[in-house]
């Protein structure tokens, strides 16, 4: 879940592992993501397009792979 106090605990826990790093790019609970994935689609392929969901996924991808 992208919201809540448990996230801070999880981030602190991840810091114990040098093999892992925290990427600050939250993906919120969006209906479009759940429906798209249940249909075997990415959020970019799903219509109607949820621009907020697409933007969140784009931020995550850019942080992982660079711009």
Summarize the structure.
With 67 residues, this protein is mainly α.
Structure description:
This protein has 67 residues and is mostly helical. The chain has helices at residues 6-14, 31-38, 51-65. 48% of the residues lie in helices and 0% in strands. It has three helices and no strands.
- Portion in beta strands: under 5%
Residue runs with pLDDT of under 50 for 5 or more positions: none
Percent range of helical residues: 40-55%
- What would you report as the Rg, rounded to the nearest angstrom? 14 Å
Shape: globular
> What is the β-strand count?
0
Distance between the termini: 26 Å
Q: Number of helical segments?
A: 3
Structural class: mainly alpha
Provide keyphrases for this structure:
48% helix; globular; 67 residues; 3 helices; mainly alpha
């Amino acid at each position: 879940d992208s919201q809540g106090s448990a996230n801070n605990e999880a981030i602190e826990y991840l810091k114990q592992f040098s093999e892992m790093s925290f990427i600050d790019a939250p993906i919120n609970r969006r209906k479009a993501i759940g429906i798209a994935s249940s249909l075997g689609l990415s959020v970019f392929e799903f219509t109607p397009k949820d621009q907020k969901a697409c933007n969140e996924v784009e931020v995550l991808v850019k942080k992982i792979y660079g711009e």
